[in-house]
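In the current project phase, the collection of sequences with tokenised folds has grown. A sample record is quoted in full directly below:
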Amino acid sequence: MEKLQSGLVIEFYSNSCLVRTVNEDIKCLAIKNIVVGDIVNLELVQDSKETRGIIISKEPRTSFLQKREGIKSKAVAANISHVGILVTPEPSTSSEFIDKWLVTASSSNIVPFIINNKTDLDQSPDYKQKLQIYKDLDIKIINLSAKNNTNTEELKEYLRAKCVVFVGNSGAGKSTLTTKLTGKHIKTNMLSNNQGVHTTSISTLYELDNQTKIIDSPGVRDLPISGLSSNEIIRGFAEIYLSSKDCKFSDCNHVVNEGCKVLSKLLDGEINESRYNNFIKFRDGDVDG
């Protein structure tokens, strides 16, 4: 057995983790700032009972999700290629939640897409119009019912050889969907309003037969955007960012300035009103989280 090996962090606890190497899964002591999804280098330590490892370094990340509070930041998952935003008619998903995750994905170098879950329920005209906003922005939308296992094959094919995190409000079906895709039962407690909450604080990476990786981490459930810069926020609203380049003044605030191309396109209906309102709200810090 080689003394030094590399592997993928597939589970993370408070100060230790499980690393999947070519030969086996090895329990390791973690160095600072290791998260699920990291590629690490470890040194093997053989004791009388089992092989254990000590992580000595990690490889550069292609992407990572992080919690930011002021100047402080903490990674919660690494090397993610896609984030699936679960949108449901019940409980109703707000455009603010969707836009928050589009901004987060943009600032994290991750590709966002939307999962229209619970297609077995009635979808109101307002709900369909909400989805249309993002379809018009060329954001990938997959329609399915995780509960009834309807159209999950399209999702599996889309996720082939990708690493994904699912996000959604409580009751959106994240655990049900993860269970359907992985075959692993994700434990939740049901609240009085029929919404589910995870019962575990362990971050886990699941590997599917089609080379798909699914990261389920409690740290991803509610990432604040308060630590993002105004430039990072506007880049998360691609259509607004592109329009802002044609504003008359480089320091245009896109609210009252003369020659503002963003306001011009808003009035013409080329920029959606809810998208614009969320952009201003996020940029000016008028949002929780």
The chain has a mean pLDDT of 90. The first helix runs from residue 95 to 107.
